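#random but structural
TW: two for the price of one
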Amino acid sequence: MKEFEEAVARAAEKAGLPLETARSAVTVPKERDRGDLSLPCFPFAKALGQPPPAIAARVAKAFQPDEWLLSAEAQGPFVNFRVNRPAFTTRTLADVGPEYGRSGEGVGKTIVIDYGSPNLAKPLLFHHLRSAVIGQALSNLFRWRGYRVIGLNYLGDVGTALGKLMVGIEEHGEPKTIDDFKRTYVEGSKACAADPAKMERARAWAKRLEEDDKEALRHWENAREMSLRAFREVYDRLGVKHDVVDGERMYVARAHKLVAQLLSQKKAEESDGGVVIPTGGKTPFLVRKSDGTTLYGTRDIVAAVDRHDRYAFDRMLYVVDVAQEQHFQQLFASLRNIGYAWADRCEHVAFGQVLVGGSRAKTREGESVELIDVLREGEKRALAVVEEKNAALKNKEAVTKAVGTAAVIFCDLGFPIRKNIHFDWNEILSFDGRTGPYLQYVHASACSILRKGGGTGGAGFDAARLSHDLEWDLVRRLAEFPAAVARATHECEPSHLSGLLYELAREFRSYHTAGARDSSLRVLVDDAAARAARLKLTDAVRATLAVGLRLLGIEPLEEM
């Protein structure tokens, strides 16, 4: 599409508009019947001293057709252009392939993405899903755009929660499995809630761990080893990979030094027995409690400094739910107040909660929904759906695993991530609608057509044979893919990509359905030239779906 966007910018330049501004202004109209490409004229109004509609009329009047563009029409403040369809189709389908949407824009730049962040001694729970899945999708997207990505899992491995676990160990013995750890933590939490003396013991255990007490460290090491093993099983099923696994405990000593340093520099102050950093807002940032222990916020400051020292990042993203918004506002303000100019490169990628039946379960009451159980349930339900549709399917076990996982992942990524998502198995496993299995099904349908047609149609297809409006809709949607990938990356919003994939799949299904009603619109028609062109278009749809699904962390399937 670049050649056509450049042609629009050059048409604007001929009318006296600045070329670079025109290049950045070219867009695709939301209402497709208005044109193929559009030039909004608002950006030129101030410099030219004219209202946008007058500028649009000026551009349309100066326009001359060329090999890329056929017409230009002023509509209010917009100039809407019609492209040379065969030329546009040829160029677009030539661009589609295994590397579609890949870019070198990020070469030489580093992105640190903190996603996952589970606590030790507990299994991964349903509410851990979003951070892991969104973070992995962002890692995939940034890598696709050429960035060096450091995917980081930052474990919650110190603090009062670990102290409660150790109170549970005192009373119930050393856990042997991750399930034992979960029960021990729940029992310890209940005991501490019921008995203030036991709560004080939990705080004492937390302080002993910060001070490297041998017994506390032994319990900690056992919990860490068991937890990481359990986390890995779930992450592998989801296709989630971290480049680095750090933990809060590695920053405890540095956190204490930081507090002393900030006090000496008068960048922190004592308050009610603790130590706070003023943030310019109503609530200062607490960095040391009255009992002398640090907090996760203190360690977040030290961790951010350490990551900047280690990786010299251009951006650091914290993929954490929206409930932590105030924490990150205070964290970033504290970093700025301490004197770190790079604090402005730190961003909170906030997401809503996963709600089941309208609520989120809480571990400390023992009412948790484990993520591994959700994935297993997804496979079980997917098997029933797949058997109903294709009982003779080969590799049924692998397919149902992929379908169940796709349902769970796309439920997270199919809509804007700040919204809460309402998890319903019947909806997310549907083969008809905005779901992961639906996209996999359309991809498999395209693969089936290509197998029956004996290939992709080859390189020498005649683009003029793709003359139906449904075919043109597909071509235009395919051309939007690189921009959707770029936008999803820049805005840290995977739904820009998932939304385009859904529209592409929906339009391909409409095309396929039209062929079932009208034999002249079938891909596998007798007319060799039309057949070759339609196979080429079908393969472009398949390839684009495959690239996009993989970027989201979903496996494209060839048979379902």
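TW: number two ↓
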Amino acid sequence: MGGSSDRPIVVAVAVALLGACGGGERMPPEFQPAQVAESAAGMVVSGSPFATAAGVEVLELGGNAVDAAVATAFALGVTEPTMSGLGGRTQLLIRTADGDFVGIDGTTQVPRTGEVAEVDVDYGYRTIAVPGTVAALLEAHERFGRLTRQSVLAPALRLAEQGFALPAPEAARIAGVAARLAEFPGAARYFLGPDGAPRPPGDRFAQPDLARVLQAIADSGAAVFYSGWIAESIAIDVARGGGFVSIDDLRRYHTQASVVVRDDYRGLDVVGTYLPASGATVMEALNILEQFEPALQPGSAEWVALIAQALELSVADRSAARELPDTHAATLVSDAWAARRAREVVDPRLGAPRRSARPALPSEPEHTTHLSVAGADGMLVALTQSLGPTMGSKVATPGLGFLYAATMGYLDTPAPGIRPYSSQAPLIVMRGDTPVLVLGGAGARRILSAVVEVVSRTVDQGLPLAEAIAAPRFHPDGDTIVMERRSATRWSDETIRQLGGFGYRLAFDSLPAFFARIHAITFDPTTRRWTGVADPRWNGTAAGPGGRVR
């Protein structure tokens, strides 16, 4: 099946990425080889070295940034199945080479047909909604790609057919949900060993059934997934398992055009997308922060307290849409709205902030994945995709090889046809026609705090991108601020003391993935080179055609 090629296989390229390390300017010590890279010919950053290599291969074939992003996203579904896959949801933000911005919403959708009851479980067949990833990726490719669909899917297909050495972090994440995977024959067959035990790190992980599905998509496009034999297999299996997705739901699914929102932050043009993504939420928090002049020093206790309050307000506004989407989106990112909300924020330089009375939300797993791609022609892609919690519903249909996202169990009222919002927040920052940042994150609600902090540290503090991403993070949760504490990076004792003096309850966490993972790209207009940075809190990589890694 479609595996022949004179080009080196992606697995070999990824192994080279993992082992390479070049010279260059100093970077924070916690980065692993190939997590920071430079290139004049474009850049790919993702959560998997194999997927990053897939994107670079497509760029080297002459593909543009959309071709490379789609190739990377499909490859992530093969090599990082704990975080995303064909049965999941995807959000894309694209800047074309001509400077236009386009958003594509491929969120999972609650089934319209049948009796959708309240779901009281968080995994299993009843949590499955209509997948959107395949539709979103193929629409992006059809509208903006340059290469053939077969060329773009070839790296993912090879990885599925020929297999790859299962990275230790991915093996550990699969092992963490092995008991639930074992409840479903398809998932157990694909993601556990023949004896039912978790696959060990380094195990050759080939997925022939997934390869057959990828080949069908390469040959026939989205139609085979949403109305052909794949759709029929999905509908039969979901019905047998007691779920709600029917063949009619699959046939009716289509992507939607995202509401693209843009505003300035300290003279830069920030672009994101509105619900069901949360780019507007990030932008509102930044706008509230901007109301406090002069800008506070990032990393200070006052800065933490202001962002914590700004995020609380912007997250509350996210779920309070009472207007038409275009109108509400414009309101949230407006200076007038930011000024109004800023009046509810206590400037810590003038008095102790009011602690939120909101209780902490239930903890969330470290799910979701993000990739950023830049082409030499200035085309940019920020793409976030997810299965929900780790490995989603834990269900895979026998014969298909991929997992479905968990959607239904997280809705209070699963109304037919709705697309639940998420904290996915792909973002692009520009200075005129010059790219400043292409970024997004993975890690549920912590995406929002991480993106705001990285943008502020680069723009307000002037840190190089790698230092901004590696710097210690925090996440507000109810009346508590959770502070990152790792051996490689930690908050100063003075900042912690002052935050306590402001009346905040502080908690400390050393688990890196709790604080999200940012995969980002920046551009130096003087050298005309791209720099990509994969978050050191994960095992991703950055690479560009003919570039060097550091």
